[in-house]
Structures are given as structure tokens and as C-alpha cells.
Design goal:
Shape: elongated
CATH topology of the largest domain: Ribosomal Protein S5, domain 2
Structural class: alpha/beta
Number of strands: 7
CATH architecture of the largest domain: 2-Layer Sandwich
Oligomer: single chain
Order of helices and strands: HEEEHEHEHHEE
Strand content: 15-25%
Radius of gyration: 21 Å
Length: about 160
Amino acid sequence: MPIAVATIIATGQAPAEADGLILLGELAWTALCATPRYPADVAASHENGFSRIVVPEASAREASLVDGVEILPFANLAQLAAYLRKEIKPLPIPPQIEDEEYIPPEMSGIDFAYIKGQEHVKRALEIAAAGGHNVVMMGPPAAEKPCWRVPYVQYYRR
């Protein structure tokens, strides 16, 4: 998204008034797509002196959890360009629901404690899960993935 906005400004499609504006999110064709960890990124931006932060519309509620910043949600690149040209105002942020109660997901009853050995494989899976990564383990279908296959474990970022 930042590269697309820089291109819009460089080609004269919008004035260069994006100073002090943080752009969080990814661009898929023209739609703005969410990425994980918005509260942490918003808090870090605020600590570094930025108060206006552009986020995808789908992530506005999550990003607004940090106090003291102005969240500017947009659904697509055209809306963001129109905002930079001062043609439109940002979309309203959905209100926080105070009564909403967190219900934890059902646990399947499977635990790494039941798996004996393979400590380095379990550790790799825990790290991947904690970081929100996908894991692909190589080997024939329905077969165990022995420890000598661990170097072939590939990590892909979502």
C-alpha cells in the first residue's frame, strides 16, 4: 500500500500531503487487505510521534483499540486517493461493543504433551503458531514425518 500511495502522489493524482501519515495494510489489486498485529503497529507508530494512521476498513475496529491516534479506515485504493485529494472523509469506525463477552474456542483435546520425543519438531510448530506462520511438512501422505525430514519444514508467512 505505501508504494501504491507513493506512486499516486508521484504521478500527480493526489497532492503530496501524506506527511505524518502511517499506512498499514496490504494491497490486493485495488482493495486494502488486513494484516495481523494492528494494535501493536498502531501503538509503535504513536510512540514514534505519528497520530494519523491509515488502515483497511476491515481492521479499523481492532486498530482503534489504541488511544490517542486518529484511525483512517478505507476499503480500497480509490477511496484513499480521494481522501488525499480531500474529496471525501474517511469512513466511520464501527463502535466498540462493551457488552461483548469473549467466548474461547472449543478445545479439541489434542495436546503436545501426548507426543513423546520429536522435541525440535514440536518447538518449530509452537514458534510457527505463535508467529502466525503456516508450516508445510514434506513427506508422503498419511506417513509419519520423521525427524530427518525436519530440514525440509518450510515456513510461509500469511
